[in-house]
């Protein structure tokens, strides 16, 4: 089967998408798609048109997800709100995720329609980096809990723990209680000043009740927490980490050391 002429493809691209689209040859039956569409940082979308197995295919060669992992853990892309955003974009525009590479076969030589859909899918997926603040907080807590669940044996882990004797209504909950040989560890994920204040109050209440415990907090971004709010928490917690993404190995080692003690 002979592929359509390149000028025919370019004409279809320009008619359906915009007149600034062009194809730049790069090897045999391989073309870089040049267009005015860019990411928010100004970099051009990475799109390549390839003739393979008797059909044209648009691919991003893994660049879209690679860009996201500059700021987001790769595993986090497949969890919670981020995973839903990505799955919706792929389904909406008929794009496949083949081991991290976005792929869209061109149906029935409808090049313009295919390129339009591919561009929209890339831009929608890239929006994962710009979720609203509330969505990001929700995703952080999901990532935080998923990390603990994969690090600590299930029989030693209780999420949303409360002291049923002193606190039957669950006003002073810990995000997670980890059973240790000496005394339990209460762990909190903090994404805002309000959550930090609440955690400080909760830990002070545990002390008032005379509970034996140790505590650890993990921030979404410690730098975003007010100085006075952070100072009060520092007085009552045993261990804190400024973020989850860059400290997973340190947190894991700390938890392992505490379990071995």
Could you spell the SSE succession in H and E letters? HEEEEHHEEHHEEEHEHEH
* Backbone shape: elongated
Helical proportion?
40-55%
Unreliable spans are none
Distance between the termini: 68 Å
How much beta, percentage-wise?
A: 15-25%
Task: Note the total helix count.
Answer: 8
Q: What spatial order of strands do you see in the largest sheet?
A: 1-2-3-4-6-5
Number of strands: 11
Question: In this structure, how is the largest beta sheet organized?
Answer: 6 strands, antiparallel
Secondary-structure content class = alpha+beta
Spatial extent as radius of gyration: 25 Å
| Mean pLDDT across every amino acid position | 89
Description:
There is one protein chain. With 261 residues, the protein is of the alpha+beta class. The chain is 41% helix and 20% strand. It is built from eight helices and eleven strands. It has helices at 6-16, 63-68, 80-93, 111-126, 133-151, 193-209, 227-236, 248-260; strands at 22-25, 30-34, 48-52, 55-59, 96-98, 101-105, 157-161, 174-178, 185-190, 214-219, 239-241. A hairpin with a 6-residue loop joins strand 8 (174-178) and strand 9. The chain is elongated.
